[in-house]
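Quick entry between incubations.
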Amino acid sequence: MATVGVILAGCGVYDGSEIHEAVLALLALDRAGVKVQCLAPDKAQMHVVNHQSGDVAEGESRQILVEAARIARGNVLPLGRVRAEDFDALVLPGGFGAAKNLCNFAIKGADCDVDEEVAALVRALVAAGKPIAAICIAPVLLARILGSDGRKPRLTIGSDSTTAAALIAMGAEHVPCPVDDCVVDTQLKLVTTPAYMLARSITEAARGIDKTIQTLIGML
Amino acid sequence: MATVGVILAGCGVYDGSEIHEAVLALLALDRAGVKVQCLAPDKAQMHVVNHQSGDVAEGESRQILVEAARIARGNVLPLGRVRAEDFDALVLPGGFGAAKNLCNFAIKGADCDVDEEVAALVRALVAAGKPIAAICIAPVLLARILGSDGRKPRLTIGSDSTTAAALIAMGAEHVPCPVDDCVVDTQLKLVTTPAYMLARSITEAARGIDKTIQTLIGML
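Done. Structure below.
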């Protein structure tokens, strides 16, 4: 049975993984019959956001791994304790945590730094010809990691022109994509979908995520 | 368009709403074409549990409403600010938060006290002949609220004999139910499903929740 790693970035759209996207990806993967292992960096979040008010919760701190365990129902491994050989594919859900905790794109844009463990795992899977799916804002990670290596990944973040320009600045090709579809890089085996970059409802997000996961599974 | 209230109890299976159950319910409701409004009590959680270790996070406190906003992507109203007339139906996802924050069943069992705002909203909907769905452990709330009123709600929490005995002690009839099905009380218009009381996977939980929400919608 194939094993798919899902890299979480916390728990909540404004400071961690977008919860709907993560759960919809877990559902689609489980329905596809693969083994799923949630993963996360074992370090502090960039910050904590009060999701009711939208304000930063000053003085509060949370650990990415510990919060990710809420989505994973406890079963999440620190990235530092897994090997690329353990996985046949990776999935990167979105949410601001992907751009605040897995890298600092939310602050530095196209000049962002990527978490070293995330970058190492992505590079190892690409090198091994294993597929990776990235949802919503998470394709910025693929753009930065693979763009730095001189690759030109073919990706989408939907239609947001500012974010698309940043993807291109990092070395990627950006392909506009509607919410119910995904963009495939057949050479690098990447599948990306806009989800809540465009979705106006959970049903819309689910359509693109289902298609993305099915496409990923088809590449195994 | 019908409006369905979803009462959340925080964000995370061990101290709040079970995230998968809540998201699967939101997805099924949205797909059914109803308007959804997330709701939560505006008070502190019983405690905070580190979901990676399973231990209580001593000295930490979180607000139910603020954490529920993570699942709701910000759009959650305090129970004290809504009226029963605004809703055509209610959904109560599970997770320990239902038994720790919406009532204290986790501590006091069949003698539990229910949050007054939750009890008032449930009573008002039942009095108006509007349907209510409860998932996983959340049927204990219906048993306690309606049992106290001398009703005998027909409910399921799956097959756990201890919890079933507590339901009966609170005045309910307990009907064993497999994970992919739901139990209907046609008189009181209640629909209940075991979800993670029995589910071994998110796919299993989704089957019962989808059926539950479809049954609820059919009662509107």
